[in-house]
Design a protein that fits this description.
It is a multi-pass membrane protein. InterPro entries: CbiM, CbiM/NikMN. Forms an energy-coupling factor (ECF) transporter complex composed of an ATP-binding protein (A component, CbiO), a transmembrane protein (T component, CbiQ) and 2 possible substrate-capture proteins (S components, CbiM and CbiN) of unknown stoichimetry. With 254 residues, this protein is an all-alpha fold. It has one domain: Arp2/3 complex 21 kDa subunit ARPC3 (Orthogonal Bundle). It has a two-stranded antiparallel ribbon. Strand 1 and strand 2 form a beta hairpin. The longest helix is centred in the last third of the chain and has 38 residues.
Length: 254
């Protein structure tokens, strides 16, 4: 019965995914930092910063699925959830956009290193299929959404659980924090690449961050609430799989 219900939810998520693939207009500057927007040196820098996390995450995911093949469906569900949420974009600063990220759920279930792989695959598919973001800026986008966001969300989850032991509050905080930190890092990336003529990097960071905050704070709250709903659903119908995943990340393992 649990597998049937989990399969039904996966079918719903897949349906939304197909919808976005067929109906998305596909503007090149729709997702995070658009293709060609960063100077070549900074684009390369963020690629080099991202690659080690991807490599470690790939090792972890390979080991996880080899030891417990039954977790592959939850891995796919976490990736689809990230894909669908991060495809919901709102206009924001030039060369970027605001949107939920969906990485907090995967960070809680799988650990942040695993999300470095799933999140970057999502960004790659969106760059190729939906013209969201781009290949030259994939390293920067992946570092903010697939590395910084999940690590922040995971740390927030662990901290709230340690202080309160209230799992729903911890899941909400993880999802919201993963969302917000993604855009804090994006603001840093844009600020250091395009410092203001008067005030430099800090002035530029304040400008980008304040513009993102208008849409990103309510989006983070909404994403946190939605993630809690999904978490409750998984707790009701797939407790065995969640318990197995929890053992995989026991003891603070990434």
């Amino acid at each position: 019965m649990r597998k049937c219900r989990l399969g039904s939810f996966a079918a719903i998520v897949a349906g939304f995914t197909v919808y976005f693939l067929l109906n998305e207009p596909g503007t090149a500057n729709a997702m995070h930092i658009m293709e060609g927007f960063l100077p070549a040196g900074w684009a390369l820098f963020w690629w080099l910063a991202f690659i080690p996390f991807f490599a470690l995450g790939l090792v972890k995911l390979t080991r996880m699925t080899k030891e417990n093949p039954e977790l592959k469906l939850l891995l796919g569900l976490a990736g689809a959830f990230t894909f669908v949420l991060s495809a919901l974009k709102l206009p924001s600063v030039t060369g970027s956009s605001s949107h939920p990220t969906g990485t907090g759920l995967g960070a809680v279930m799988l650990g942040p290193l695993s999300m470095s792989v799933l999140g970057s695959v999502v960004l790659l598919f969106q760059a190729l299929l939906l013209a969201h973001g781009g290949l030259t800026t994939l390293g920067a986008n992946a570092f903010s959404m697939a590395v910084a966001g999940p690590f922040a969300g995971y740390a927030a989850y662990k901290l709230v659980m340690k202080l309160t032991s209230r799992e729903r509050v911890a899941v909400f905080t993880a999802a919201a924090m993963a969302d917000l930190v993604t855009y804090v890092v994006t603001s840093v990336q844009l600020a250091i690449a395009f410092p203001a003529a008067d005030g430099g990097v800090w002035t530029s960071f304040a400008k980008f961050g304040s513009i993102f905050a208008v849409t990103q704070i309510p989006l983070a709250i909404s994403e946190g609430l939605l993630t809690v709903l999904l978490w409750n659903w998984l707790k009701s119908y797939s407790p065995g799989e969640l318990s197995l995943l929890k053992r995989q990340t026991k003891g603070g393992s990434f």
